[in-house]
Amino acid sequence: MKESVMNHGDVNAIIPTKKRSPMNGQEDEPTVMKNKKQMKWNDPMASLADARHEFSEHGGVNMSIEASATFTVMEPETMRRMFTGELGPERDFFIYSRHFNPTVLGLSRQIAALEATEAAYCTSSGMAAISSVILQLCNSGGHLVASRTLYGGTYALFAHFLPRISGITTSFVDVKDLRAVEEAIVEGKTSVLYFESVSNPTLTVADVPELCRIGHAKGVTVVVDNTFAPMVLSPAKLGADVVVHSVSKYISGGADIIAGAVCGPARLLNSMMDLHQGSFMLLGPTMNPKVAFELSQRLPHLGIRMKEHCNRAFAYAMRLKKLGLQVIYPGLEDHPDHALMKSLGNKEYGFGGMFCVDMETEEKANHFMNLLQNYTQFGLMAVSLGFHETLMSCSGSSTSSELNDKEKALAGISPGLIRMSIGFSGTTEQRLNQLEMTLSRMQEGGLLNKY
Fold it and tell me: Sorted alphabetically, which InterPro entries does this protein's record hold (predicted)?
């Protein structure tokens, strides 16, 4: 093992600024830092490919799974130095896997490359990532401004749990109304501006650069949930300070893993890992290293998957619109944010793999989904997204059920709004035929006008 001494202010830092090897006294590259070569790439796939590759302990092409909960040292003095912050994982000194784990750290570097941030750290769930960031950035009695259209779990955290537990309150606003956002931020009190790059479930596209400009002018940290649009949008490149993910969704792609990630500046991630005051360290939202290893195997083909999700979503949305349904998809020219999405998005990746169909009533929505699953086998009635099969849910009675009727109306969630995560199994023509068969059956039953 090599030893180095760090400033006490960077306790076990994820990205130290300098290190010296006691072996030769020469400056050495930090083992976890932003890859300067990588920063020239605009394509997320290229950035990911340019990230540091972790080989296994014995030279295997895949990194090792470090399943240990605790780690040994060769000298008693070394442990004291680790707990005072002098020695950390940048030199392969690890204390306990709730703090840092080598396999999780390897995946975290890949996620940072994906989102073009200095650092990242992977968590046990998306909600763990979100709550840890907010609790690190906001003090007791603090305040944040957030979009009124959010994933239901995030909304419940902000609207109900945080005020009860810590007195942290949230002002919910329409992030399309930039003046309302600016007026809601109270200088000296508001700590965070939080929104989703593409809103769940209404698919409103946030003007990330303008919202960041407003937030930074007011001195707040801008946190963006990019779960709906990995590869498609890069919020950090557009000005966001922190990017969070439910890795369970597109990044995983298998509907078999629960995971999350926080991407952002080294200073913030270091503070979250602080032994005495870090939310990651003290709350313990630790990712299992076996999960981290599995996810690291899926990241290299995320770009290929996202392109196909987006291509299929565009094709199906166009067909359903042509057949007379009310379709909400940023790739359609009549979507109010089409031009914005086109200007902000990464070329080659399309407009996202999600779209909504508004059937107006929950009864019609349920009938439509029932036929799509049980009559034509187009998709599955299930929450979540990013799976190779199409997943469908009526948002108002499922993933947004935490909102009351008034809140749903303000968020633009109608009772019959179906959220669809478009998969890529089967052929495009096969799936289009299934859509048409479903609509024919509904028309025969008198639930739709003839299209």
Answer: Cys/Met-Metab_PyrdxlP-dep_enz (IPR000277), PyrdxlP-dep_Trfase (IPR015424), PyrdxlP-dep_Trfase_major (IPR015421), PyrdxlP-dep_Trfase_small (IPR015422)
